[in-house]
Design goal:
By secondary structure, the chain is mainly α. Helices cover 52% and strands 2% of the residues. The chain has seven helices and two strands. It has a two-stranded antiparallel sheet with strand order 1-2. A hairpin with a 3-residue loop joins strand 1 and strand 2. Helix 1 runs parallel beside helix 7. It is globular, with a radius of gyration of 17 Å. The termini are far apart. The structure holds iron/sulfur cluster (SF4) (2 copies). One iron/sulfur cluster binds next to loops. The site of one iron/sulfur cluster has 11 residues, from helix 5.
């Protein structure tokens, strides 16, 4: 049978930024970090203490391009091994787009627990990271990109549904 998913040229940059937008909406709806972050007392974010900038610039595919675009839009961060330069105390991450795979996917155990208990979502950040990296490497199959977007969309709907019951 003819499989059109293998014939279609994929715009991986567009797909990555689209998935990132969906992830952002998902985390905004969950609204955990700003209320319950267990890591820091005067700020928001694991990135403020022991987690620093990861940029995918050496990932073959569109890694370098996304990294360059990020520098143009948000400025180039200085080397800082203690705290990411895109992190702002009291606000969290300043990047709205062009985050690395790790930055887009990582969440702490506390938030994972919250997603499971409150929304019934089993979030596997390694699997999310793997999907994002496949896109950056320009290796993801179209069907997998579609399934990944559908999965995040279902998560968003689940969260909205539970939140609307408040
Ligand atoms: S993922 Fe967890 S540790 Fe990181 S900012 Fe959110 S609540 Fe804090
Ligand atoms: S870019 Fe954003 S999410 Fe990534 S380490 Fe820096 S502040 Fe954290």
């Amino acid at each position: 049978m003819f499989d059109d998913t293998k014939m279609t040229k994929i715009d991986y940059r567009h797909e990555y930024l689209t998935v990132e937008k969906l992830m952002r909406e998902f985390f905004q709806q969950v609204n955990f970090c700003g209320r319950f972050c267990p890591k820091v007392d005067k700020s928001i974010g694991c990135c403020a203490c022991n987690y620093y900038y990861d940029d995918d610039r050496f990932v073959k595919g569109i890694g370098k391009r996304l990294c360059l675009e990020r520098s143009v839009i948000y400025g180039k961060p200085k080397e800082n091994r203690k705290k990411c330069n895109y992190h702002e105390d009291g606000v969290g991450c300043k990047l709205v787009t062009h985050r690395s795979c790790l930055c887009n996917s990582f969440i702490c155990l506390e938030m994972k627990h919250f997603l499971r208990i409150r929304f019934g979502i089993d979030y596997d950040h390694i699997e999310v990271d793997r999907n994002l990296r496949e896109m950056i490497r320009c290796k993801a199959e179209l069907i997998n990109v579609k399934l990944f977007k559908a999965l995040i969309t279902v998560w968003i709907m689940k969260v909205k549904q539970v939140n609307s019951r408040k």
